[in-house]
Amino acid sequence: MTLHTDRHFEDELQSLQELLLRMGGLVERQIAHAIESLVERDSELAREVIARDREVNRLDILIDEECLKVIALHQPAAGDLRFVTTALKVNTDLERIGDMAVNICERALELNDEPMLKPYIDVPNMAKEAQQMVRTSLDALVRRDTALARRVIEQDDVVDGYAHQLYRELLSFMVEEPKTISRATRILLVSKYLERIADHATNIAEMVVFMVDGKMIRHAASLPRGGAELA
Amino acid sequence: MTLHTDRHFEDELQSLQELLLRMGGLVERQIAHAIESLVERDSELAREVIARDREVNRLDILIDEECLKVIALHQPAAGDLRFVTTALKVNTDLERIGDMAVNICERALELNDEPMLKPYIDVPNMAKEAQQMVRTSLDALVRRDTALARRVIEQDDVVDGYAHQLYRELLSFMVEEPKTISRATRILLVSKYLERIADHATNIAEMVVFMVDGKMIRHAASLPRGGAELA
Fold it and tell me: Do B85 and A65 touch (CB under 8 A)?
């Protein structure tokens, strides 16, 4: 019977993992469509993304319930328990990434009502990096691959670099032409949403490293020297 | 022996709760000091808040480990398990509120280097609301009080109202006087950080309602009619 139970438990962990990947794929597409609605000035698409947030939210509820069920029924031990509690937290990050896609669409709807300020070249480039970070952080989770997770954490600097560049560019737009201010601040907010998506992916990657190594790199700088290993 | 074990378990839940309240009190003070460093133009205080984020991070690690220990050792059943997994998620929200206080201080350090744009009246008022939301959401958690949790959720509109008002005000500053743009965008970011703190408190409150009632109000609008009760 133990074999049967273990098999069942493995299946449930597997299906939990697949749910997380489905959620990840969904929010990745939400980001891509949100940016497309901005760049192509497609307000219809923006409204579709906002409506599809219902799916993200349903999946969020489902994954949380699955995590609780796995813990309650199988009482997993150390490593597996850490995976399931990590899944609980990763799920929240993914749901909030979905919220960021909605926020981007809200700004897109406002921006699409006004003449275009400038071609949004940096914005889609920045979005591509952020999307890739989300995908890679989930790959790292399911493969328990800390090297991959660390690549995500490093990639966050690329996104921050784009954000900084865009900020300076928008600032000079606003200074030279005050009538661009309202549009420029909205684009600035879009860049902030993308930064937050990258932050969420970074959080996921840091949790993966902690889950696998027991190393709390997310706060490594906060710990006394030599105290970075807690588990 | 069961009695003894139960007692021990109750003690651990109690101490977990106290840790969360300690974390809550700490991040609340971090917000208050961050805003003080901005309003009083006290860069020394800003640097202290940034340094004290180490404490927030240490407590974050400790609380996560406590949650895992409680689950692994006591294998709590439905309601208690839901409390511990909620604690895991609440802890993450509190840690990120701490990060927002650090971000406010970073903007304060930049703003304190330039002449003051205007008296920051709305900013501290907005911060007080956000702080109160954090405190009340944790009260709601430890008392399992959904009415209190719902008050937090309603209060989010007050913070959003302040944010909107501040945005319009800063926009008109920038339009009338382009040399204020750099400072105004920094204050705009501070207001965004406070909005995010209020969002985190709202998330906590929504999780409390779900924990107590099994009602997923955080996505109530996403569910088909009559489908708001999942548990």
Answer: no
Give domain B2-222's CATH superfamily: Phosphate transport system protein phou homolog 2; domain 2 (1.20.58.220)
Structure token pair of residue A130: 């952020």
Q: Do B85 and A92 touch (CB under 8 A)?
A: no
B92 has a chain A CB within 8 A of its CB: yes
Pairs of residues, one from chain A and one from chain B, whose beta carbons lie less than 8 Å apart: 95
Contact B175 A178 (CB under 8 A): yes
CA-based nearest residue to A140, from A17, A1, A15: A17
**What was the pLDDT predicted at A1?**
41
Please give the single-letter amino acid code of residue A203. N
> What are the DSSP calls for A79-145, one per residue?
HHHHHHHHHHHHHHHHHHHHHHHHHHHHHHHHHHTS---S---HHHHHHHHHHHHHHHHHHHHHHT-
Residue with tokens 């699409």: A112
Q: B77: how many CB neighbours lie within 10 A of its CB?
A: 9
- Whether residue B175 and residue A181 make contact (CB cut-off 8 A), yes or no, is yes
Q: How far is A219 from chain B (nearest CA, A)?
A: 6
Q: Cβ of A66 under 8 Å from any chain B Cβ?
A: no
Collect all residues of chain B within an 8 Å Cβ-Cβ radius of residue A171.
181-182, 185
CA dihedral B190, A194, B59, B204 (to 10 degrees): 80
Across the interface, whether the CB atoms of B88 and A92 are under 8 A apart is answered no
Considering only the beta carbons, identify the residue of B54, B181, B218 that sits closest to A174: B181
Q: What is the ipTM of this complex?
A: 0.83
Burial class of residue B14 in the structure, from the number of CB atoms within 10 Å of its CB (0-12 exposed, 13-18 middle, 19+ buried): exposed
Calculated CA dihedral for residues B194, A88, A17, A30, nearest 10 degrees = -20
And the tokens for A198? 């990258």
Q: Which residues pair with A229 in a beta bridge?
A: A215
A48 contact partners, CB below 8 Å, separation of at least 6: A33
**Chain B residues near residue A98 by CB distance under 8 angstroms:** none
Backbone CA torsion sign across A221, A223, A225, A227: negative
Residue range B102-158, pLDDT digits in tens: 999 999 999 999 999 888 889 999 999 999 999 999 999 999 999 999 999 999 999
Mutate to test the interface with A, among B99, B216, B225 (most CBs of A within 10 A): B216
**Radius of gyration from C-alpha coordinates of chain A:** 20
